[in-house]
TrEMBL record:
Protein name: Lon protease
SMART domains from the UniProt entry: AAA, LON
Cellular component GO terms, alphabetical: cytoplasm
Localization terms from the record: Cytoplasm
Gene that produces this protein: lon
Domain Lon proteolytic residue range list: 590-771
Residues where ATP binds: G354, P355, P356, G357, T358, G359, K360, T361
Amino acid sequence: MSEMKNIPMVALKEMTMLPGMLVNFDVSRQKSIKAIEAAMRDEQKIFIATQKDPAKEQPAMADLYEYGLVAEIKQIVKLQKNVVRVLVIGQVRARLVSFELEEPYVLAKVSVESKSEKEQVEDISLEAMLREIKDMALGYCKLNDKIGKSVSDRIEQIDELEDMIYHVANSLPFRNRTKLQLLATKELDKQAQLLMDELEKEIDIFHIRQDLQIKVKERIDKNQREYVLKEQLKLIREELGEEDEDSEIMEFQRQVESLEASEEVKEKLKKEIKHLNKLSPTSSESAVTRGYIETLLALPWDKTSEDNNDLDNAAKILAEDHYGLEKVKERILEFLAVRNLTAKGDSPILCLVGPPGTGKTSIARSVAKALNKKYERISLGGVHDEAEIRGHRKTYVGAMPGRIVNALKNAGVKNPLLLLDEIDKVSRDYKGDTFSALLEVCDSEQNCKFRDHYVELPVDLSQVLFIATANSLETIPRPLLDRMEIIELSSYLETEKLHIAKDHLLEKQIQKHGLKKKQLTITDAAMSRIIRYYTKEAGVRGCERQIAKVCRKAAKEIYEDEKKTIKITKTNLEEYLGKEKYRDHLKNDSDEVGVVRGLAWTSVGGVTLEVEVNVMPGKGQLKLTGQLGDVMKESAYAALSYVRSQSKQYKIEKDFFAEHDIHIHIPEGAVPKDGPSAGITMTTALLSAVTGIKVRANLSMTGEVTLRGRVLPIGGLKEKLLAAKNAKIDTVCVPKKNENDVLQVPDEVTDGMNIIYVSEMSQVLKAALIKE
C-alpha cells in the first residue's frame, strides 16, 4: 500500500540519496532553506529529489527524477554567506506526484510506499540473493584497499536483503545513475539483480585496471632492461674495438670522412661524435650534441660553386632586368673584371642606398643570376639581438646559429651572394649592439675567420659576395659605413619610370593576373598619366600597384562581359583608377612680392616649395610657421641677419626692423620640413617683402646661405631639377660648387632650362628680383 503526503522539498544537483544513508549537504537556495525551516517546525521530514540538469536554478517538475527519498533532518548548522549545512538520514523511497510553490518554499505531493509491498519474493530466493550480494561485496572490499574495514564488518552483520542492498549501494563507489535505478525499481529481486550486475561490473573494471598497471610496469621494466643491455653491449664493442655498421655514430663518422673541410673542423667533429657515443640516447645533452654535429656537417666549409665570369652575359642580364641604374651596373662589371684578372680578389661589401621602390633588392637578385651564384636574403629590419647575427652559445636551451651561418647552410656553398636587406633598420637594446656584430661580417680583413657563438669554429666569409640595402645612411654608424662601398640609387625620372612600367611591370602584372599580352594594352599617354597623377614616389612600387589595379578590373571585364581585348587610354583611365590623386605644382602665374619658389628633396623625389614672407607693423619679432625643423629655423635667422646687413644698399629705413614684425611661412603646414637648402630662398623672399621688389615667377632656387651671403652647395640636385621641370620652371639658381653634379644630370632634365650658377647672394638677388 502507498500513502500520499505533502512534504517540503529540496532538490539536490549532483547527489542521490538512498534509505539508511546519513549525509551532510549544503543548501544555498532560499526556497530550499525555507523548506528545511518549515520541515523543522513540523515533523522534521523532508522530500529529497535529484535534478536532471544541475545547471537549472529553478527546476520544474520535468527537470526532476520521478523517485526520491523521504529523509529526517538530524541537524542544521548556519554557515557564512546565507549557506545552511544539513545532516539528514534517508528513511523511505517515495514517488513525486506533483509539487506546488507554497511561498516561500516548494511543497511536494509524494506517494510513500510501505515496506510490505516489496515482500513478494520467496524467502529462499531472498536468502540466496542476500548471500550472493554479501560475497560479491566482501570480495570487492578485499580488492579495493580504499574501502575501510568497518564497511565489510557491517556487511557481515546484515541479515535483511533490502538493508543489504541499500548499505552496499551507499558504501561502495556507485554512480548516481545506479542509485537512481535502485530508487525507481519497486521489486526487491530486481533491485538485487541490478546491484549484483553493477558489483560484477565494478569487480571486472578493477581487474582490468590491475592488468593495465601490471602491463605498464612490465613495459617500463623492459625498457630499463633494454637500456642496461644496450649499455653493456656498447661496452663490449668498445673493448673489442667494433662498431655497428648501421649505427648513427658510424653514419656521422662516414659523413666526416667525406666532408670538404679543414682538419680543424674534422677534429672537432670527431671529438663531438666520440662524446655523443658516451652519452645516453635519452639524455637532453645527447639531443644538444646531435644537433650541433648535424649543423657542423651541413655547413659548406670548403664547398664552392663555379661563378660565371662572362662580362657580356652579366651586362646582358643586368640590362634585361633593370632599366637605367648605369652606375650600379658599371660597378658590378668592374668587380667581375677585377676577379677575372686576379683570379681571386677580395669580395667588396656593396651597399645600395636609395628611396623605397627603386629596385635595390631586385638588383641583388639580378647580380646573383648574372654571376650564377646561390642567393640568400637576410632581412635585418627590426633585428635588435646580437645573437641573431653571432648565434647563441650551444649551452643555452634552444640555442641555434646566427642568421649569417644559417644563410650559408641554406645556400650549401661558401661563396654565395648574401643580401643584407634593410641594414639601416637594425636596432640596439640591452642584449647587445647588433651593428657592432655586423662590423666583423662586413670587414674583409676580419670575416675570413668569422666567429659564430654556436659553431665555435672560424667560418670563412671572405668568398661571400655581400650586398646591403638601405633607405638612408643616417642611422648607420660611421665605423660600419666605412666598411661598405656606397652606391646611391636616386629617384627615377618620369621617362625612366615609363620605360620600366612598359618593359617590366606591365608584362609581369599581366601574367600574374592570368591575362594574355594581346588582351590588355596601355598606351604611353595613359601610362604617363598613371605615373604623374596617380603616384607620388621615387621608385615604381606604387606604379606597379596601380597597373595591378587596372589588370584586376580588366580581368573582371574579360571574364564577365567576355571582352576579347581592352585598351587603356588617357580618356578611359579614370574608369579603371578613379579620379586623379595628385596634381602638378606649377609655377606662379605672375611675379609677386615676398613669394619665392624653392626646391627640396624628399623620400619620394624632388618637390617645389613656396616660401611666403609678410611684413606688418609690430615690435621687431620674427615668426616662423609651416612645421620648420631646426636647420630651416637657423637658415631663417641667418637670412634675416643678411638682409639687415644690406639695409643701406637697398635703402631700408634704420628703424624698419624695430617697428615691423616679419612672418615667414611655408605652405602645407601639416608636413614637417627640414634641411640645409632653403637659405637663399628665404633670403630672397625676405628681401623682396621688406623692399617691395617683385620676384620672377618663372624662377626657382636651391642653396644654403651664410651670414656674409656666401652660397653653400646642397645635395639631391637631380631630383630638385626634375621637380622644377615638372613645375614648368625654366630658370634655376644652383650653387656654383654643384656645377659638376649638374653635368651628371640627364640631358632630358636640363634641356630648355636656364641654370644660373651662383656663389654669392648678390648674384641670386640679381637673377631673382625685378628692378623697375
